[in-house]
Predict the structure.
Amino acid sequence: MLHDGFIATHHRTEGDNMKLITVTKIAAGHYTLTTPAGLLTLTRTGRTWRLTSVAALFRTMRAALTAATSIRPTRPLGSMPGRLLKLIARTHRAARTVTKALAYRCRSGLIAVAVEQGQLIRTGDLLDRLGADDLPDGQRSWYGRHTAKAYRATHLGAHAVKVWTQHRTTGRWIHAFVYNPTEPALYTALRTYKATRHLVNNDFARCA
């Protein structure tokens, strides 16, 4: 006879697989079973044994233990059903076949729309509007760094939002900061960077 707290094991062999459960006695006629399907409770009522998650009653404890080894693990709460997983997989396969431009546009979302509508601009867009489209790439890049630094200085260290865009000369996709056209940091950077200082008096800069 098992005393309270006694731990025993029970196993059943199916082919090459052995299903093992641990039996812990809580009280007379009350046991907990640790199985691959989770934690189960085995209780005795009169001359029958009842197993949680199983509707049938068992005449012997051994029959109940054998049934416990046959219970399959259930899907964890919150896990995704198979149909949803297949849908996600199909979506990923479709995304891998679209053009790179569409893929990057999808990543940028509403930010890309705002850039197309002129609600947000890149530093290169401002330079083009000021007639500095012939400025070398290296100097344009440094102007962008000055702008980002000025933006962080006036926004408690926060960064501006970014959009995926193609580099104007290399064609490579880059993640570039974008700003409101009236953002003071754009014009602060024009004054602080020596290569763009001459653009401050441009009509566009004065109007902005």
